[in-house]
Specification:
The chain is mainly α and 541 residues long. The chain has 23 helices and 4 strands. 55% of the residues lie in helices and 6% in strands. Strand 1 and strand 2 form a beta hairpin.
């Protein structure tokens, strides 16, 4: 029985010299590529299943922002350009049954990708399906992880093996430029996450106090967040140092070599695990973990998972019978390299634009300002209009930078309902803060999109009026899709006659308060955003 080689060098040593040129090029990413695409398939499955449970209430015919109304307004405003500006298959049919169908198709495509069926074709179909739903989802599907998922998908097409049912162990290694598409995306995501915090000039990041606010001001905290918020300032500051080390200097390891990239990948995975454990960010952290897998290599994974797991059939690297690799047509190589080069170039422009847009010139050193202004003149003066703006409708080449300005207070809109206009009851949401004695839940990787949007609405009520009034109308109607979305089935049989928006300021309780009262939150009333709203009322105070 042939001994299992410890690494690819040992495997090369076992192959007769005369046969080396006949064998397929040995690669160091058999396992990592296999894991990456299974991870990407699981992320898509989570995304579609999570959305499926909410989409009718969000954008269905009886939802908060019905697609039919949205597309009609777009058609009236944009005319024949509506398709180009809002590319979506939902233009063909946007009934509730079709929304159900698109989600079902997405689940099926996710399963096909997990099984390794025609990965390149399936990736294209997944991109089209998720883009279609993202456009139709309007504000509820405009988060950074939705854009990142689309960008990951496009960057993965050339990284995937060809064929309907490829053999992942013997397929030719992906081109180096195909690997750079994913390495570059991981660099862009993490580097922008760090540099935008500094370029924003936000004092909370520069003086190390950001985490004193983050745990209770993040969109949907968990009960773990409460405990993290009680940690001393020194721990918060040390955590920020580690975070900035990973998001800034360590990102440049991607350009140094295989082992350096693995260090960056493992550090990113570790950071994402910590963030996932201390908050509810849907599948965003898991998505970043999956994106970090191509930064690793099979030797690193072998060292981590031990020799036993390496002998699993799907991971096994064994000697292959001598065979020849069919020569790839020149036209295919040219197309692949050209496409990858254009994606990398556009992605670089998006990175520069994000930095230029974020910088606060009055708070930055002059050398930083002049450098970014020069990049603006040399690159964005033509690249933004000719490249990025034309690609924008497809949501596939993006800039990133979550929490570049730390939110230091937590305003919450509490929707109150009444039957008589005198006695008011809070209409609780399933996941966002409401009653002070309710423990903040752990819900990730599920992404409750209405609860997330309520966080944005609290920060900017005026900018969210258009969908908040849609939500109010549905509550007054006793709409069953909204009742299910909010976990309040009794609203269907007994809809409120009046609704109003009340404004509160929330903070985590301290240990003494929680011990005395059992409350996880403390809150103070800031006032009313509206008077009583009814089906016959249009008062918008």
């Amino acid at each position: 029985m042939t001994a299992f080689p410890d690494d690819l060098a040992d495997l090369n040593a076992q192959v007769p010299e005369a046969a080396v040129e006949q064998l397929p090029p040995l690669q160091d990413c058999v396992v990592t590529r296999w894991l990456y695409f299974r991870g990407l398939a699981l992320i898509y499955l989570l995304a579609f299943l999570s959305l499926w449970s909410q989409i009718h209430g969000l954008v269905g015919s009886q939802g908060i922002l019905p697609i039919e109304k949205y597309f009609k307004l777009a058609q009236d405003k944009l005319g024949d350009n509506a398709w180009q500006q809002l590319p979506s298959l939902c233009w063909l049919a946007h009934s509730d049954q079709m929304l159900h169908g698109w989600c079902l198709i997405g689940v099926g495509l996710s399963a096909a990708l997990f099984l390794g069926l025609a990965p390149r074709l399936i990736l294209v179909l997944l991109w089209v399906t998720y883009l279609s739903l993202s456009v139709a989802g309007q504000a509820f599907l405009s988060f950074q992880w939705d854009s990142l998922l689309l960008e990951m998908t496009v960057c993965s097409i050339l990284y995937a093996p060809r064929g309907f049912l490829p053999d992942w162990k013997t397929s030719p290694a992906p081109r180096l430029i195909a690997r750079w598409l994913l390495w570059g995306l991981a660099f862009k995501l993490m580097f922008l996450s760090g540099i935008t915090k500094l370029l924003s000039g936000d004092w909370a990041w520069s003086d190390g106090t950001a985490l004193q606010y983050h745990y209770y001001t993040q969109p949907i905290p968990s009960w773990v967040s409460w405990y993290c918020a009680q940690l001393p300032l020194s721990v918060h500051q040390a955590s920020l140092i580690v975070m900035f080390a990973i998001e800034l200097p360590l990102t440049f390891l991607v350009f140094i070599g295989k082992r350096s990239r693995a260090v960056f990948g493992l550090a990113t995975i570790g950071l994402m695990i910590v963030i996932e454990a201390t908050g509810n960010f849907g599948f965003f952290n898991l998505q970043t973990i999956v994106l970090s897998i191509p930064l690793l290599n099979d030797q690193v994974l072998n060292a981590i998972t031990s020799r036993i797991s390496r002998r699993l059939t799907c991971f096994q690297l064994t000697n292959q019978s001598p065979s020849t690799v069919p020569a790839e047509p020149v036209w295919r190589r040219v197309i692949a390299i050209s496409a990858a080069s254009m994606i990398l170039g556009a992605s670089g422009l998006a990175l520069v634009r994000e930095m230029v847009r974020t910088q606060q010139a009055d708070k930055m050193p002059s050398i930083v300002v002049s450098t970014l202004n020069l990049a603006d003149r040399l690159l964005l003066s033509w690249g933004e209009s000719w490249v990025l703006n034309r690609l924008a409708p497809y949501r596939t080449i993006n800039g990133y930078g979550l929490f570049r300005v730390m939110t230091t207070h937590r305003p919450e809109i509490i929707i109150e309902i009444s039957q008589d206009g005198e006695t008011w009851e809070s209409c609780e949401f399933p996941y966002k803060p409401g009653k002070v004695d309710r423990p903040p839940p752990i819900i990730a990787p599920h992404m409750p999109r209405l609860d997330w949007q309520m966080w944005f609405a609290g920060l900017n009520p005026r900018g969210s009026e258009y969908w908040l009034y849609g939500l109010t109308e549905r509550l007054l109607e006793g709409n069953p899709t909204i009742a299910r979305l909010m976990g309040r089935p009794e609203l269907v049989a007994s809809p409120p006659k009046y609704v109003r928006w009340s404004y509160y300021e929330y903070k985590f309780s301290n240990p003494e308060q929680r011990h005395a009262t059992g409350a996880w939150w403390s809150r103070s009333h800031s006032g009313l955003l509206t008077g009583p709203l009814s089906k016959r009322s249009d008062s918008r105070e």
